[in-house]
Write a structure and sequence with these properties.
9 helices, 3 strands
């Protein structure tokens, strides 16, 4: 049986998402092919696709992982807050009891990860993805996937700020509580507030106003 070819695009995207490749890192076709065990043609096509999506940028003849300036960061958070709020509102209306139970379990399980910002960041992505899926709106999920790809261009997670993990868990708990009670407006407001607080924390991290645990 012929082995399944790995998807070069997904492999590179995931590596950016988890911080293996950080903003400013140079991506070399031959190195990537060796790292992922994929031939150079799909790697080349994946790099072209990522460049088209503005996840990679040109630095002379080299491709590097793109970074976000202050204005781009602010624009991204505005869009993210609106789309995430809509997803939470729709989840409050359409989520199945099983999906709500998964969200509640995620909040409880994530309490054990406090103090580990990298693990918290991965759990946070899973939590938000579950809300997206629970909205039962495929077009919204597609748009949020694009937004979250761009979020991968941030060098650090806001969950690295001292005390932010505990606050984030409390905010997640409020979001799930609203979804559990089918409170569409409450879920929308709770998730928008959560994104707003994350943005404020990131700005404080970038300015040095708050300390990072990383």
């Amino acid at each position: 049986m012929k082995p399944v070819q790995k998807d070069a695009y997904i492999l590179i995207l995931e590596a950016i998402d988890i911080g293996v490749f950080k903003p400013g890192d140079r991506l070399v076709e031959s190195d990537l092919a060796e790292r992922f065990g994929v031939s150079r043609t799909p790697i080349r096509e994946a790099l072209q696709r990522l460049e088209t999506q503005s996840l990679l940028a040109r630095d002379g003849r080299s491709l590097i992982v793109a970074s976000l300036d202050h204005n781009q960061l602010a624009e991204l958070y505005v869009v993210r807050a609106e789309l995430e709020g809509l997803a939470a509102s729709l989840a409050a209306r359409h989520a199945t009891p099983e999906e709500v139970a998964v969200l509640r379990d995620m909040v409880e399980d994530d309490r054990k990860l406090m103090g580990h910002p990298d693990k918290m960041a991965r759990a946070n992505r899973r939590f938000h993805k579950q809300i997206h899926l629970s909205s039962h709106n495929r077009f919204l999920v597609q748009q949020l996937d694009l937004v979250h790809r761009s979020m991968a261009l941030m060098a650090t997670t806001s969950l690295a700020a001292v005390g932010r993990d505990e606050m984030a868990i409390a905010e997640h708990d409020a979001i799930v509580s609203a979804i559990e009670t089918s409170d569409c407006a409450g879920a929308h407001a709770a998730l928008k507030a959560h994104i707003s607080k994350a943005f404020v924390t990131r700005l404080k991290l970038d300015s040095g106003e708050v300390e990072s645990t990383l």
